Structure prediction request, 247 residues.
Amino acid sequence: MTQDTILFLLLALLSEIIGTVSGFGSSILFVPVASIFFDFKTVLGITAVFHVFSNLAKILLFRKGIDKSIALKLGIPAVLFVVIGALITTVIPGRNIELVMDIVLIIFSIYLLRNINKQLKQTNTNLIAGGSISGLLAGLVGTGGAIRGITLTAFNLPKDIFVATSAIIDLGVDFSRSVVYIANDYFPVHQVRLIPMLIVVSIAGSYLGKLILKRTSEHVFRYIVTGVVIATSIFQLIKYFSGSGGD
Prediction:
């Protein structure tokens, strides 16, 4: 195992822990981390496959807390639109997709800073819209967890239910986009060796995240969610303009 692989797996573990605690899922950190090591379309493929296992781990750990009504209303449009987003990536250069992701993260950072104590209204319209937008972004740029997190936050779900409901939605999203990505060779055969290691990372990260979540107050939890998005957007902006992004 090379030093780069070890570093990648450690950063993936950190992403998984923070993603579990924040409730956004680890893709919001895993995508920019993985883009340091791989070209962006390979990142999309690896992210989707990794998160199938990641979300299975979360569902097992938080399985008693799923809000089925919210999961269906948010999840069905998310699955439909993630396929559309994934198909769009087949005709757009990876570098351009990465720039779109940077812009999306920055917009969310500004939104969260301006509205840190505000929430969306608890409506079915917001659930459907949130699912559609988060699904489209997940398929297109690899991460739609921020939109899903903002939408779920409006319903004041307890931490365990928030994470479990987000995970069951994300499982459908990740499985659907994985099919599109794999069919278009976004997950190279020589990267299959990473799957067993990423399974271990997903289980360990979800478990450690759950332990941390038990010791985190609801107030701190909300700020963690905001901080994750802001930190990631700043990192991505610096990386893009320094010219280190994948093609």
Summary: The chain has a mean pLDDT of 82. The CA atoms of residues 53 and 199 lie 6 Å apart. The radius of gyration is 16 Å.
